[in-house]
Design goal:
The complex is a heterotrimer.
Chain A: H1 2-30, E1 35-41, H2 42-46, H3 49-61, E2 64-70, H4 72-80, E3 86-89, H5 92-100, E4 104-120, H6 133-143, E5 147-149, H7 155-165, E6 179-181, H8 186-196, E7 199-203, H9 204-209, E8 216-220, E9 227-235, H10 245-256, H11 258-266, E10 268-269, E11 272-273, E12 276-277
Parallel strand pairs in A: 1-2, 1-3, 5-6, 5-7
Antiparallel strand pairs in A: 3-9, 4-7, 4-8, 4-9, 4-12, 10-11
Helix pairs in contact in A: 10-11
Chain B: H1 5-13, E1 20-29, E2 32-42, E3 48-51, H2 58-66, E4 73-78, H3 85-88, E5 91-94, H4 105-115, H5 120-134, H6 149-162, E6 167-171, H7 179-194, E7 198-202, H8 206-212, E8 215-220, E9 223-229, H9 230-235, H10 240-246
Parallel strand pairs in B: 3-7, 3-8, 5-6, 6-7
Antiparallel strand pairs in B: 1-2, 1-4, 8-9
Helix pairs in contact in B: 4-5, 4-6, 5-6, 6-7
Chain C: H1 2-17, H2 20-53, H3 59-69, H4 74-85, H5 100-137, H6 141-151, H7 153-169, H8 172-178, H9 188-197, H10 201-224, H11 228-232
Helix pairs in contact in C: 1-10, 2-5, 2-6, 2-7, 3-5, 4-5, 4-8, 5-6, 5-7, 5-8, 7-10, 9-10
Classes of the chains: A alpha/beta, B alpha/beta, C mainly alpha.
């Protein structure tokens, strides 16, 4: 009889305990903690930059930076909903539009890196070493060699589509044949490209930090049009009063300060500098 | 506690729910008449055994009496009052296939005592007493569902009796049991009757009917054919159908 | 394949070192999913039991809906919760988005239909067996629901385990409402997704192995509660 009572009690206690935990865990997390939420892109996260950068800022200010890393398109949409204090992405026209529509306070240049075109070593479209990116894309389109696109409205995707627009090829018309839209992040798209032997465009940092390269290498780089500018914006507190104005601005101020810029320049992936600070 | 003192005193303490009256009770399902204008009055005392061939409506009649199903026409009354939860709690029913809770033997009895509002302090003694009478005391902590068929039915009866009902309905309680187990069940029924509980039971076992019955209600095709004291019934049934049935002829 | 061998080695190394980040991630995964299952139990067990016992107009429709919701894609659940919890959404003022609480809510939404539907099935079977006996005893409707839940508890555990399996394994909902924030909302599945996107297939696979092992452990722990397996089939 004792064991039966004990089993019943443990059963009820477990349920009650769990329920209490659920209730207690909620408010504790939700209150105005000493943290900010940064809506950012997969490239900054997957490249390892934030892991290098954030501890320096957090040690100095005690402000915890919580990064939500999604595509630039989704990051901007999240920020438009007020779900974040700071927007840190890489598609300058969208960023200016974000500010112009009143969702952001002001845009600051932070740094740049560049995009590259990677592909299999045997290079079926013979683009290796080309310095004109649109010529290289044209050759891929004309030879109908497989090309993997993010297809996810990210900064990289927007950039890539902008480059195609300068060629005579309409890749969207070939979607599903040689032009393949993965609808996924940079890393996932690289995985797909490597396993399909398809060309793809990546930011350099993600590529450098990527572990599953197979026989892929950089085929096209250095064209000025592959330049990839990052900007940072405080979400407008007048639109969303809950935005942590001072803490968010402190993070932005640090990023564009001499210390923050030096920290960005310091970051190396396999000995190579991945991002180039250019705040004014 | 002497074996039969408690139920008797308890029964006389409260106004009786008996007699039970069925007035032109009928049960229809679609166009089929399952029970056809049944008139019957049952009072305290004799053990009433309902017999009849398969499909005669014996089990349905018990369920109508106990209030588990409602008649489509006619009325069931208990001491002149309409049936209800309070009156049903003065009755108990044992089913052909005993329905035991997925708990220990003792917990099965404890459960009904709790439902009936027996004080916590009183329960343990009542459980022990009930299991003792059923010869199940040594199995008290065993899971009820792993008992043998005979033990399960004895537990079901002990559980029904534990609430000291004024009326105990039993629906073919021994039809799935071997003769020895059936005999043990019959002995329990006898003891419960001796302690003052009205017994209403169905069976298709003529030997059992002869052993237990004080009066016989004979049913056929949903109708009450005759109601006769047991000795007279077995000696000389009043109707042809009952004569055929007692003689062991197939009735259709 | 080399990958698998290496993944197992990595998994063992991670477990043996008791890597502090791994411990943190595993702890959060368990915390979130167990809480979600507990919340689902509090909602789904009574709801499923009531659905099994009480007849009301539209009941059949509710059952069909419930069974369909068992297949609700996690991404859809995540999106709906995101829209509700977003600052621009109706519950935005509570600031729950990108917190573990949001993940618990999302998983609760995913698990509750499973718990409720399996409870409904279990209790309905039990009810058809117990109904006459309980009515004969004069057991009231609410009391009979508790009786059925208690007597069906061993089978119901299986339903809760199925719910836990769905919760601990899903990534689509928690990555949307949690944001996969390092040290805050990063759980096993979102870490696996992240490491895969970094091309760290070996580490991702190692984490997958640990996740499966955890699920096996939790199942074994519940099943070893005295005789659950044996009694579930009574």
């Amino acid at each position: 009889m004792a064991s039966r009572l004990f089993r019943r009690l443990t059963f009820i206690a477990a349920l009650a305990f769990a329920a209490l935990g659920a209730i207690a865990a909620g408010p504790a997390q939700a209150q105005d903690g000493n943290f900010i939420i940064v809506q950012s892109t997969t490239s900054t996260e997957a490249s390892g930059l934030f892991e290098h950068l954030l501890p320096k800022f957090e040690n100095m200010t005690d402000i915890d930076v919580r990064v939500v890393a999604v595509g630039t398109g989704q990051a901007i949409r999240n920020a438009r909903n007020g779900d974040g204090d700071v927007l840190f992405v890489h598609h300058t026209p969208s960023e200016f539009q974000f500010v112009a529509e009143g969702f952001g306070v002001r845009r600051f240049d932070v740094m740049y890196n560049d995009f590259i075109i990677v592909g299999p070593k045997d290079d079926p479209a013979s683009i290796s070493g080309m310095e004109d990116v649109t010529a290289a894309l044209t050759r891929i389109g004309e030879s109908e060699a497989a090309f993997a696109s993010r297809g996810d409205d990210s900064g990289t995707n927007k950039k890539e589509l902008g480059l195609w627009a300068k060629t005579d090829v309409n890749p969207r018309a070939a979607s599903g044949s040689w032009y393949r839209e993965t609808g996924a992040g940079m890393g996932a798209t690289l995985n797909t490209a490597v396993s399909m032997g398809a060309y793809t465009m990546s930011d350099r940092a993600t590529w450098l930090n990527f572990q599953n390269k197979g026989d892929f290498e950089i085929l096209v780089e250095g064209d000025r049009r592959l330049f990839n500018q990052y900007g940072v914006i405080l979400v407008n507190p007048e639109k969303y009063p809950h935005v942590k104005k001072q803490k968010g601005q402190a993070f932005i101020d640090w990023l564009v300060s001499a210390a923050g810029q030096a920290a960005i320049a310091d970051y190396r992936i396999k000995g190579q500098q991945a991002f180039f600070p250019n705040a004014r | 506690m002497p074996f039969d003192a408690s139920p008797r005193t308890r029964l006389t303490d409260r106004p009786s729910v008996l007699p039970l009256r069925l007035d032109a009770v009928a049960l229809e399902a679609g166009r089929h008449t399952l029970i056809d204008s049944l008139n019957l009055e049952l009072d305290r005392g004799p053990r009433t055994i309902i017999i009849g061939p398969n499909g005669a409506g014996k089990s349905l009649t018990l369920r109508l009496m106990h209030g588990l199903i409602k008649p489509t026409r006619g009325a069931v009354t208990w001491a002149g009052a309409a049936p209800g939860r309070r009156r049903r709690m003065r009755q108990a029913m044992v089913f052909q296939q005993p329905v035991l809770l997925r708990r220990s033997v003792a917990a099965n009895v404890r459960y009904v005592l709790r439902v009936h509002g027996v004080a916590r302090a009183e329960r343990a003694a009542r459980v022990a007493d009930a299991l003792e009478r059923a010869g199940l005391a040594h199995l008290a902590r065993r899971s009820a569902r792993v008992l043998s068929g005979g033990e399960q039915q004895r537990l079901a009866i002990a559980r029904a009796h534990a609430i000291q009902p004024e009326v105990l309905f039993l629906d073919e309680p021994t039809s799935n049991l071997d003769p020895a187990a059936a005999l043990a069940v019959e002995r329990m029924i006898d003891e419960i009757h001796a302690a003052g509980t009205k017994i209403v039971m169905t069976t298709h076992d003529m030997g059992q009917a002869r052993r237990l019955a004080d009066e016989i209600v004979f049913m056929h095709r949903g109708r009450l054919i005759e109601r006769t004291p047991a000795a007279a019934f077995f000696a000389d049934p009043q109707t042809q159908a009952a004569r055929d049935f007692v003689a062991g002829q197939l009735l259709v | 394949m080399d990958n698998f061998g290496a993944a197992f080695e990595t998994a063992f190394a991670l477990i043996l070192q008791l890597d502090s980040e791994l411990v943190e991630i595993v702890a959060l995964s368990l915390q979130v999913s167990l809480l979600a299952v507990a919340c689902s139990a509090l909602i789904g067990l009574p709801a499923g039991a009531v659905l099994a016992v009480v007849r009301f107009p539209g009941r059949q429709g509710v059952i069909v809906l419930l069974n369909a919701l068992m297949g609700l894609p996690p991404v859809v659940a995540g999106l709906v919760i995101y829209l509700l919890l977003s600052r621009a959404g109706p519950l935005g003022e509570y600031g729950l988005l990108f917190t573990p609480t949001a993940m618990v809510i999302a998983q609760t939404v995913l698990v509750t239909p499973i718990v409720a539907a399996l409870t409904r099935q279990t209790i309905e079977d039990l009810h058809s067996e117990y109904d006459e006996q309980l009515r004969s005893l004069g057991v009231r409707r609410t009391q009979s629901i508790w009786t059925l839940l208690w007597d069906g508890r061993y089978s119901l555990f299986t339903g809760l385990l199925a719910g836990f399996g769905r919760a601990i394994a899903e990534v689509g909902a928690v990555i949307i409402v949690g944001g996969n924030i390092n040290h805050v909302t990063r759980v096993m599945t979102t870490t696996i997704a992240l490491e895969t996107s970094k091309g760290n297939l070996e580490l991702a696979l190692a984490l997958g192995i640990i996740l499966i092992s955890l699920a096996i452990l939790v199942n074994a722990a519940v099943m070893s509660l005295r005789g659950v397996t044996a009694r579930a089939n009574w």
